[in-house]
Amino acid sequence: MMRKFPAILAVTVLLAATGWAAKKKIATAPTAATVAEMTPEQRVIHALDRLAFGARPGDVDAVGKSGLDAWIESQLHPESIPQNPALEAKLAPLETLRMSTADMLKRYPSQQMLKGMVDGRIPLPEDPQARAAAKFAMARFAKSQKANILGDEAKPSAPKDEKALIAKLPLTDAQKQTLRTGSKDERAALLSSLPADQLMDVIDALPDAMKGRLAGQASPEVRRKLQILRSPQQVVNQDLIEGKLYRAVYSNRQLEEVLTDFWFNHFNIFLDKGADRFQATAYERDVIRPHVLGKFKDLLLATAQSPAMLFYLDNWQSMGVESPANKRGGKKQGLNENYGRELMELHTLGVDGGYTQADVTEVARCFTGWTIVQPQRGGGFEFAARMHDPGEKHVLGVTIPAGGGKEDAMKVLDILVQHPSTAHFISKKLATRFVSDNPSEVLVAKMAKTFTATDGDIREVLKTMLGSGEFWAADNFRSKVKSPLEMVVSALRAVDADMDSAQQIAGLMNTLGEPLYRKPEPTGYSNTGADWMNSASLVARMNFASGLAQGRLNGIKVDPARFNGAADQIERSILLTEPTEDAKRAIQAGFDAQKQMRPDRVGAAIAGLTLGSPDFQRR
Amino acid sequence: MALSRRIFLRGSAISMIGSGTAPLWLERAACAAESTGKRKKVLVAIFQRGAADGLNIVVPHGDPNYYALRPAIAVPRPNAAKQADTAIDLDGFFGLHPSLSPLKPIWDRNQLAIVHAAGSPDPTRSHFDAQDYMESGTPGLKATSDGWLNRALPPAVGKPSPIRAVSLGPATPRTLRGGNSVVAMDSISTFGVRDEAAALVLKSMYGGSKDQLLGNTGRETFEAVAMLKGIQQTPYQPAAGANYPGGRFGESLKQIAQLIKADAGLEVAFADLGGWDHHVNEIGQKASVGQLANRLDEFGASLGAFYQDMGDRMEDVVVVTMSEFGRTARENGNRGTDHGHANAMFVMGGPVKGGKVYGDWPGLAPEQLYEKRDLALTTDFRAVLGEAVHSHLGKKTIQSVFPNYKGGPEKFRGLLRA
Q1: Closest Cα in chain A, distance from residue B410 (Å)
Q2: Across the interface, do B186 and A511 touch by the CB < 8 Å criterion?
Q3: Helices H, strands E: what count in chain B?
Q4: What ipTM does the predicted assembly reach?
Q5: Out of B132, B221, B291, whose CB is closest to A539?
Q6: CATH number assigned to the domain with residue range B40-189+236-411, chosen from the 4 options 3.40.1130, 3.90.120, 3.30.310, 3.40.720
Q7: Could you report the per-residue pLDDT of A507-561, keeping only the tens digit for each?
């Protein structure tokens, strides 16, 4: 099982990987002579560290064989890479990932939708299955509302005795017997055989300890059914988070995943803000993902018109002071500058990009009327002329004549995309994520030049970055601290973990300090590695590392045979480089002191230590 | 008393180290004793996330407009015969929600003050923006990267305690982020590497690491872990009569009490409690049931238990509560309230000049409301936090903590004994 890769690898890589990247570097980097370069072996590892979420076993050899430049070229064209069937199998049950927002809301209604249906403001779905599910959820919703108003009085005083509770259930005697004394499998089979409404009644009536036990024994399908009945909206969020983790770990199109994470984070929205609970799925799938290697303008426009962003930064409510609606009288609503400000500060120009408060207000005026049809029901973008400020505007020195309507905002986007500050700001952010916490001004300027020359072609900007000497400079090898997501995913990949469930990992992301899709601020998470180091996170990384290696994480299997070799072999299989002498010594000393450890556990323990070591925290 | 305890700790620890029998944590504690072992002034910040309804928490029962605005969900005027479901009178004009009865004895001992119509001057009604502004301490400024409570830490003398700034929760909250090192933990007992053999190896690995950032964070972490492990050697027993309710918030306050009493160098602590966004069913058929009562039961009982538990150690402690904004003065159509503006803050502790509601009452008549809908603001939250930072933590210039705040000590309400 252990790979003897260093020797083989060095040869393969030397022969095969001296292509594209190296040639470009020489052509474009006048300072190359003074900058120490990575070894060919390091280049391959570096590419997998930066353009992917780390290497899986065998990746380094494979990339070495096909040639590094060919691998990079294919990652830049993800549609050319066949997808991993294992990933497709894991995504298949997560059906909300493939639904339109409106359909999803019918099948997995939000609290607001349920309330609307209970109040009769929103019609029930027509599809019979969805209709039945909605009725069931409405009944539960109404019950919980009643309990809230009446306090404890509404809750029946439940006897605690399991036996007595089971006796009262609407089940046959044989079914009751199974519930009381059946084996794990028999109970699971019983739960699978019950229709949805009965299933929920049964589970509801049981004491908490037994509920948990039963849910734990149920099949994944029943567990999902229970979750849908209990809290449909939570399943939507869970699918989204699990889907992201599965893709990061298993996708063959790694650069696409890294970039989807990067651009979602750049155009951040917050999963717990109102309608974004159910808009986030389509936002990532339809707004971000299709453009991650495309033209920046297309990406920016897609976000500007997405209900998720319109809701998150409040533009959907922004109303021109001089709009027809306000002139008509009645309840007056005002301008909301939230989006206008973040559009310039965070999405395009950068905080020092040369705009003023007056520009913020003018941009907000241009965007009035860019709103959402019925946001709580999953509606899409619309331009509402009645909300739009029809007057003349002045944005960054450009006059936008009166009466432009929807086109005002289109002009703003053009101005911003073509502004040199945007080229610089975007280039610097990409370089910070991919190259180093402090990329040189020379590199950023070079990338910005490509950005301007190619009309904001993200793929071309990345090519410039990858062709630079700086990307491949030895100083940048393993120089960035991994974010929690990068740490967790790279660890799962390094030990070739088989995930049946990503739910525990999703929970761990909170402890690690990077709850997925839950960064409340529009800034998104930091791309600066150093920002990710703190005590709580470090402790959580160490615990995750040992839990993973020793097979203690729910739904995640790691083949123990992977850790059968000698200590330094195990360390090398994870780090892909020679571990530091300090780390080797510490591990050796630790195990000399632990003579009582069972021999078959030592390998996994060493793997856990390696994953938790300082060396593994960098990419 | 604190001094003698400290000398004992050092003396005995050093003798044990000499004999080679000292547990690691004790060695750490003895070495760190220069900066710890002394009673410190402690500021505890509590965030009620979701915008708590200050008007139903500290009830202006003397303002007739309050009852006009909230026909269905007002807390009734104090009535001794129906104590459990009416406001607890404080001063003839304001009263506490009945679920806050555990706070009344503290009020009576003049160690609980309230500042009403307080909050952030920023007009945003977005939870996340308003929380961000309150936690950064810079309303209107998004670029601020650190939090006010981190900036409020006094300059360290000697080697700072690894646990001078602690947050109970899974991540460092915005309030505590910044240049001073902070320990964020779910709880004292889960903060640490679970596998003890692995912990020893990792400790030596990070201790000897040439990686500056990771090495330093690792060393700080293991110091904090060691110190907390030491503190846990004695199972914590709250003082008699202190009954912390179940739930995360009570548990957080209990652990803060434990850390304060351990004299391990804690100076600032943070805990939060969510679930205050009561658009629906804020008040049920009577004041003692409904969503608000549920939250206040936990909030009041936890703070009451903390006060009881701390006993005379409360002399060193100031607790301040805040929430991102208040709620609409008028009830909505769902027995709830929507996002509003000003709110009520509690200030509790030995140094507090309590038994008084501070601040100017702006009134609830239609023309007195902020944007015709919300309680108007008469005290900037930074005047309250600023006073705690200035008078309690001894920070001379509050501008270093609240950089875009124009006010100084002249804006303080005089909540604390100088």
Answers
A1: 31
A2: yes
A3: 12, 12
A4: 0.82
A5: B221
A6: 3.40.720
A7: 999 888 899 999 877 889 999 887 788 788 899 999 999 999 999 998 999 999 9
